[in-house]
Specification:
Radius of gyration: 22 Å
Structural class: alpha/beta
Shape: globular
Largest sheet: 8 strands, parallel
Strand content: 5-15%
Distance between the termini: 68 Å
């Protein structure tokens, strides 16, 4: 009876906390037939290494070292179980939220996710060696990324070549992102390099055009900055936010292609917020991605740059 009821019961699974994760792995192992899970959310709680001053009556170096090893083994066990869950459920997942785990979704040890459509992750994809067919259905991507330098966009183009929606959260002191987004959104360049624009005809502009052309379907981009982390980066961060605000204003006026939204500055994207967004997606909502207005322009023009040229190549 359980093998019949369990698949329906576990179509959507939220694992909020480390012990729930471990318990779920044990439950999976007990099924005679694996459930078909379409929606998965995993939030890990930070495991802290204990300090010697917290040992009380057991204040010895030997006991402290022993507890350090126990903590290290526990963290390793959790990581292995996250990997086990992803490998087991990959064939049927449609939405995936991962918060608090440093999971490399481009690792060769993971299989294909043929139906995965929406993903939120607090880890950036790290490698460009992943087969583009690993995520053939991936359309909406939300990544926590302090910065998005050229290598990030190169990996993302390989990781999610058919993406239509992209949100970046936690961006801070990043001088590159506004410049690249101006190219991606097909907004006109200035005559000289500025905080939000490459100089037309420059090698940097040419590389950005070639990279942006690898996102022929990306129509909706949103960025949520984090506050700058130290006084030394205040000027860079202020320039970044001013440049992003300019891009958002131009997009709101209907300039360029696609849609760009600048979200309010926020210190962190919490596990609770991530879970709320995931539930909204499961119920058919937009989750972390701002809804698109009617009549927004198609980004298909980027696919024609090679033949028709681009203002940045002038």
């Amino acid at each position: 009876m359980n093998s019949i009821a369990n698949p329906a019961r576990y179509q959507s699974v939220s694992l909020f906390g480390n012990e729930k994760l471990l318990s779920f792995v044990n439950r999976l192992a007990s099924f005679s037939a694996l459930p078909v899970i379409h929606h998965l959310f995993i939030a890990g709680l930070q495991v802290r290494y204990i300090q010697m001053t917290e040992l009380g009556d057991q204040y010895t170096f030997e006991r402290w070292r022993e507890m350090q090893e126990e903590t290290r083994a526990y963290i390793s066990k959790l990581s292995v179980n996250v990997h086990t869950i992803l490998v087991t459920l990959a064939p049927h997942l449609r939405t995936l939220g991962i918060h608090g785990w440093n999971v490399d979704l481009t690792a060769d040890t993971l299989p294909a996710f043929p139906f995965l459509h929406d993903i939120t992750s607090t880890s950036k994809p790290r490698h460009s060696v992943t087969s583009p067919t690993r995520f053939p259905s991936l359309r909406r991507v939300h990544i926590r990324a302090r910065s998005a330098h050229p290598a990030f966009w190169l990996v993302l183009a390989h990781f999610a070549p058919r993406a239509t929606h992209l949100r970046l959260s936690g961006v801070c002191e990043d001088a590159h992102t506004p410049r690249f987004l101006r190219v991606l959104l097909d907004l006109p360049p200035g005559h000289a390099a500025t905080a939000d624009s490459y100089a037309a005809g420059s090698p940097e502009a040419a590389r950005a055009v070639a990279l942006a052309a690898r996102f022929p379907h990306l129509a909706h981009v949103s960025v949520q900055p984090a506050p700058y982390s130290d006084a030394g980066g205040a000027d860079v961060h202020a320039s970044m936010e001013a440049a992003l605000a300019g891009l958002a204003a131009a997009s709101a006026r209907g300039q360029g292609v696609g849609m760009f939204v600048l979200l309010p500055e926020q210190h962190s994207y919490t596990a609770e917020e991530a879970r709320r967004d995931w539930l909204d997606v499961v119920e058919g909502g937009d989750g972390p991605w701002p809804p698109a207005p009617d009549g927004n322009a198609s980004p298909a023009v980027r696919a024609k740059w090679a033949e028709e040229g681009n203002a940045y190549l002038a």
